[in-house]
Amino acid sequence: MSSVGFPFPPGTDEDTPFFVISVAAQLSGLHAQTLRSYDRLGLVSPGRTNGGGRRYSMRDIVLLREVQRLSQDEGVNLAGIKRIIDLENQVDALRSRVAELQQELAQALAVADSTAAAVHASYRRDLVPIRQETALVVWKPKPRK
């Protein structure tokens, strides 16, 4: 089951472009000319067929609905919507990078732990650990008689 509530055909997902512009317009509640305009402005960039026809994915449809909501309900102009979309894409990319770095860090820590364990296992058993103290001892020899 997909995040949009219905199963996708095998080998496809919400990013697979397969809706023609008329179907995408109907699903998004917008006019096909509006979709073309949004494509020209770079708000929603659908996939293309070899012949140049637009093909929209389910993710594109969701984005078209969000553009419409921001424009009509929130009063945001198209330049502002483009900026919002760009910033959201940047945040998504940064979140992905943070997740990658966290995974790399976890792997590095695991390697460091196993290396430290190997070093500790290689210690000779006749060595005795000593306590380190910071006490100062003053020696006063007794005067000779």
TrEMBL record:
Keywords: Coiled coil, DNA-binding. Residues 18-87 form the HTH merR-type domain. Transmembrane segments: none annotated. InterPro entries: DNA-bd_dom_put_sf, MerR-type_HTH_dom, MerR_fam. Residues 84-111 form a coiled coil. It holds the Pfam family MerR_1. NCBIfam families: HeatShock_HspR. This is Helix-turn-helix transcriptional regulator. It comes from Lentzea sokolovensis. The lineage of its organism: Bacteria, Bacillati, Actinomycetota, Actinomycetes, Pseudonocardiales.
